[in-house]
Design a protein that fits this description.
With 448 residues, the chain is mainly alpha-helical. It is built from 19 helices and two strands. Helix content is 73%, strand content 2%. A two-stranded antiparallel sheet has the order 1-2. The longest helix is centred in the middle third of the chain and has 33 residues, at 168-200. The N and C termini lie far apart (47 Å).
């Protein structure tokens, strides 16, 4: 039976919305380019304008129920591309920088946001003052601090492609972003166990809080590695490009689906899949595998960011505005300071010290996933509190995605990893025609 949506007296098939999703996102992305802004801005504004909060072309039911599968598919494809953007040779060149920057920028965001919220939430949420601080405000502060850690791979990868960025700075950025989500999942895994224990007034089980997140990470890596090894064995039998697309898409969806079914991270599993294929499959085959995915990435970015923009509930967002602003500025401060300290400890180049933090400011789609995962825990305190904090985090992510592409662009330009014609800054869309001219074409591979 075909999926339909009832709007008024007309039953629209879900394919209508899928088609509109692609057409509207690409049109708004092109309009953003015309106005000299990144395409991501157009995609997000399309979601806000055409979503439930404004004209509701895409209703809350359509966005929240019918099109969620497209969001999940987009995320695993984007994660695969992030993993494929990393090569062992290039990571070895900057491994010291990657380690220190990844750890300190993540801990910086967690510490600054967590501390601000631990201090300010009692002032911002006076209706809960009669409740115990350690069972209400402190666990909320821990959760919000952990949710502030992830960086948006989709936003950064989209801009890397659009700007045709390449160089050591770009390699460090993509490496940190790829590892950042894994570290964010580990931190969140620890924090959610502690928060549950505090809210319920229980003693923290240190063994559970340490082991459970690590098991999740290992299972995610194992899934990505297993599917990648399978593809490595069979990929030589699929030469035509049109067949290659089906094989790689199938591998990506299988990886994400297995991870989701087992309750682990589909993002991390897909990143591992992309990384292993690019580094440990025969060179020509690996490049072809990533080429066919790159050719469909721009529509994928459009789908993902339009649906992200459509998640905004303006009425709830206004109620949570102060919390939203604190989250944004606290996260910015933590990322910038942590990145600078990490680059300083690693004795990185001046451009990495000065500008890398700006490239890590976009907030991840996984941030929304984490806060939705935490919603049942927050709702144990009060259903209203859970809804309020979810709205604050969603608003933070969307505002962040609207303003941070300009910071990311500033970082790449300042680090001299791109050359932009002053008269055409974002004015012309970049055609994604394989790996020629962009980041991956400049990798040094050896035949495996």
């Amino acid at each position: 039976m075909h999926e339909t949506i009832n709007i008024g007296t007309i039953h629209w098939n879900i394919l209508v919305y899928s088609g509109l999703l692609l057409l509207v996102s690409q049109a708004m992305g092109r309009l953003a380019n015309f106005l000299r802004a990144p395409r991501i801005i157009g995609y997000l504004l399309a979601g806000i304008i055409f979503g439930p909060s404004c004209i509701s072309l895409f209703s809350e039911h359509v966005v929240g129920k019918q099109l969620t599968l497209l969001t999940e598919i987009s995320l695993v494809i984007i994660s695969f591309s992030i993993g494929g953007a990393l090569t062992v040779d290039k990571i070895k060149e900057v491994k010291n920088s990657i380690f220190w920057i990844t750890v300190l920028q993540a801990l910086g965001a967690f510490a600054v946001v967590g501390a601000l919220m631990a201090f300010l939430l009692p002032l911002l949420l006076p209706s809960y003052n009669e409740l115990d601080y350690w069972r209400v405000y402190f666990p909320c502060a821990l959760i919000l601090g952990a949710i502030a850690v992830p960086t948006a791979p989709a936003a950064i990868l989209s801009l890397v492609h659009e700007l045709k960025a390449k160089g050591k700075f770009t390699t460090i950025v993509l490496s940190v972003v790829a590892l950042d989500d894994a570290l964010a999942i580990i931190i969140y895994g620890f924090v959610i166990v502690w928060a549950k224990s505090l809210i319920m007034g229980e003693n923290v089980s240190w063994s559970a809080s340490l082991i459970a997140p690590l098991v999740t990470i290992f299972i995610s890596i194992g899934i990505g590695l297993s599917v990648a090894l399978l593809i490595k064995m069979v990929i030589r039998f699929f030469s035509p490009r049109d067949v290659m697309l089906g094989i790689i898409l199938g591998a990506i969806l299988l990886t994400g689906g297995l991870a989701r079914s087992l309750g682990v991270s589909p993002l991390l599993a897909s990143m591992v899949l992309g990384f292993v294929i690019m580094n440990y499959v025969r060179h020509e085959r690996a490049v072809e595998a990533h080429d066919v995915i790159e050719n469909i990435e721009e529509p994928i970015f459009g789908i993902f960011f339009l649906l992200a923009g459509a998640q905004l509930d303006i009425s709830l967002g206004m109620k949570a505005l102060v919390i939203t602003l604190i989250l944004i500025f606290g996260r910015f401060a933590g990322k910038l300071v942590g990145s600078f300290l990490g680059a300083s400890v690693a004795e990185s180049t001046p451009s990495v010290k000065k500008y890398l933090g700006f490239a890590l400011l976009p907030s991840a789609g996984v941030t929304i996933g984490l806060v939705l995962d935490a919603h049942p825990v927050l709702s144990q305190i009060s259903p209203g509190l859970g809804e309020l904090l979810v709205s604050a985090v969603v608003g933070t992510t969307l505002i962040n995605e609207l303003i941070t592409p300009f910071f990311v662009r500033y970082a790449f330009v300042s680090a001299k990893d791109i050359q932009v014609d002053e008269g055409l800054k974002f004015a012309q869309p970049v055609a994604l025609v394989g790996r020629k001219g962009n980041l991956v074409s400049h990798r040094n591979h050896t035949k495996k």
